[in-house]
Amino acid sequence: MQHSLLSPILVACLLSAVPIKSEEDYGMYYYTFDNDTLTASCTKPEPLIFRLMVDFLTMVKSESDIAMEQCVLDGKGPGFTSPPLFARTIFAATTIAYNTYARYSQYANPATIYDEWTRMSQKQQKVPDCIYIYGFYQIANFIMPEQMTNYSFKQKYENTFHCNLTEILANADSELGLVQRDVDQLKLQLKTDGFNQEGCYADATNFRTINPPCRFDNRSTVAICRNFTHTYNTIWNYGEIVKTDFIDSPRTPVFTQAQQARPFSLGRLYDYLAPPYFEAPAFENGTMMNLTDQFLYLTNVQKDLGADNDKPKLIAEYWADGPKTTGTPGHWQSISLNIIRRLCYDNDDALKLLFAVSAATYDAGLAAWQNKRLYNSVRPATFIPTEYIDDSFQHQFVGMYCDFGDIVGWQWSPYQEDHVITPQFQEYISGHSTFSRAASFILEKITGSPNVPGNLSVTIKAGKSLFQPQCNKSNKACYRQCRVNSLLDSENNYIPKRDVTLGPWKTYRDIANEASISRIYGGIHVTSGDIQGRMVGQKVGEAVWAKVSALFNGCVRSSHDRFRPCSRVSSDGLSSI
Ligand SMILES: *[C@@H]1O[C@H](CO)[C@@H](O)[C@H](O)[C@H]1NC(C)=O
Ligand SMILES: *[C@@H]1O[C@H](CO)[C@@H](O)[C@H](O)[C@H]1NC(C)=O
Ligand SMILES: *[C@@H]1O[C@H](CO)[C@@H](O)[C@H](O)[C@H]1NC(C)=O
Ligand SMILES: *[C@@H]1O[C@H](CO)[C@@H](O)[C@H](O)[C@H]1NC(C)=O
Ligand SMILES: *[C@@H]1O[C@H](CO)[C@@H](O)[C@H](O)[C@H]1NC(C)=O
Ligand SMILES: *[C@@H]1O[C@H](CO)[C@@H](O)[C@H](O)[C@H]1NC(C)=O
Ligand SMILES: *[C@@H]1O[C@H](CO)[C@@H](O)[C@H](O)[C@H]1NC(C)=O
Ligand SMILES: *[C@@H]1O[C@H](CO)[C@@H](O)[C@H](O)[C@H]1NC(C)=O
Ligand SMILES: *[C@@H]1O[C@H](CO)[C@@H](O)[C@H](O)[C@H]1NC(C)=O
């Protein structure tokens, strides 16, 4: 052990516990969780992994902004832009932390055992902080080097924690040398995991959309698109669309290579296909809706999102997790961080929880996106304008700060920020539903209860919405365009009019269900995409839990990457592990 490399004491700044409160402190908390008396009652300092994950999510959020643009400008690929990539990035960070934990534990197995893997001797059971920080730093630096530079995290950790983070020779015979082996092993896996990180995450599987790029500028251009889809009978297929006023590049689908990526716990990805989407009707109010009716239903939902109904609008925006966020996978890490503090977990339990939840969102991303590619289904943003081009719809969304208005079909748009419009991947199945059900299932299992400790709720203060905050004449950002001739009132059409509370969510499932339904309110998914996403997410959650609980308990692995029934498991909860 090279003492000079490791801080002998836990740094003082960790000792002052900061309650999880402000967006300023933690970047990724878009809104504060309310009435967090449980967190306040936890007097332990935040575990190291908590601090590392908070910084990590900050970088993921920035990376989703800059790396995408550079890749697109260079014409290399879509870049760091889709939720499965966020999930993979977070999972890589938790994996290095978990593998480090496993090396020091008496029986836990690492996520991957490789030939030279060794366990620390019984004497070394407490992982020095710098060992965790070193692994975390090396993996973050491998995936998001420009963020590491921008945020000066290397200097921060070197100065604050007194760790030396310079990469060391892989076979150095020291604790850092051992974690360097884990880092090298994980980097090798990341290079060959099918995501194509080195190539700007471009699809190398030769996926092509059937429909040509369509302009949705006005009725004439939508009509051209409609003619095409009708002629070639591809109306149910995803196509690239352009809406000049709001976005100016084609919506090329991203992460179509999911089916060649390496899952964590899903033996064959193929087993996680949803039924063909024409055969997946959905129920609403006891009525079976075919696919056409499910699209039309969204126009009814949007009608209800009128000026006086702020709550579903806030649910839609709170869970949107679109550009400049950490995506749905990051949102579930934020929720997990909150749960860690509510339950006052120590570092070992905290990192196992974050690892398991991120494994769930990683596998959920692969499962959902292979469905998207296979079924290649059309988004409401394309289907409704083309299929109902001249039909009238009352009281629809026509732009931020605009009064809801009567429109004809070609003018229809989801309830989203103007520059977003709709994600550039296919509808079926819903990523939000798949991620959220899988993550909530893991939280139930790992905490040993379906209930959120103390409930969770989020209050959005009057005028503080993300999409449509209160503003005034001197703030030009508030003045936009309505898509139809409608009253634009930036002064008074702010959201919400009064404070609105989302939740209280009593169970993890409640949280997941709200994340899922938010995409219906937003007009981004139809009901079958939502429901089938939840079902696939459930199966993913079960597979991930089977694997992580076996790893935690050190069950022996057979040659087929399956796990023997585990004699050590006495209950599902973490406390027994
Ligand atoms: C928080 O707790 C206080 C006191 O118990 C209560 O008055 C308030 O309504 C709660 N706020 C929310 C958002 O639940
Ligand atoms: C760089 O970091 C700052 C905060 O230190 C952040 O506000 C900014 O968005 C980051 N820039 C890029 C390009 O990531
Ligand atoms: C950090 O570690 C590297 C490689 O082991 C070594 O060359 C360097 O001198 C160390 N830096 C400090 C400040 O100790
Ligand atoms: C519709 O948009 C196209 C392409 O942007 C433009 O050339 C055309 O003049 C527009 N037509 C009408 C009727 O506004
Ligand atoms: C669409 O097809 C119809 C019938 O073939 C044709 O009359 C019409 O001009 C076409 N519209 C456009 C915009 O191409
Ligand atoms: C279901 O019922 C609600 C409330 O009565 C109504 O607003 C909604 O349109 C109904 N859905 C369908 C598909 O009829
Ligand atoms: C869907 O069901 C409605 C009745 O609710 C029916 O009018 C319509 O023709 C059906 N559409 C398809 C494509 O089957
Ligand atoms: C959680 O919320 C439910 C209502 O959904 C309420 O009945 C219950 O008392 C709450 N529990 C706590 C601990 O606040
Ligand atoms: C109007 O908005 C601008 C920009 O957000 C802000 O700086 C200014 O203080 C606001 N003025 C009033 C009167 O609220």
From TrEMBL:
Task: Report whether Signal shows up as a keyword of the record.
Answer: yes
Keywords on record: Signal
Q: Where is the signal peptide?
A: 1-22
Q: Which SUPFAM superfamilies match?
A: Acid phosphatase/Vanadium-dependent haloperoxidase (SSF48317)
The organism's place on the tree of life at top rank: Eukaryota
Q: Which CDD domains does this chain map to?
A: PAP2_haloperoxidase
Which Gene3D superfamilies does the UniProt record give? 1.10.606.20
What protein name applies here? Answer: Uncharacterized protein
Which species does this protein come from? Rotaria magnacalcarata
Q: Provide the organism lineage as a comma list.
A: Eukaryota, Metazoa, Spiralia, Gnathifera, Rotifera
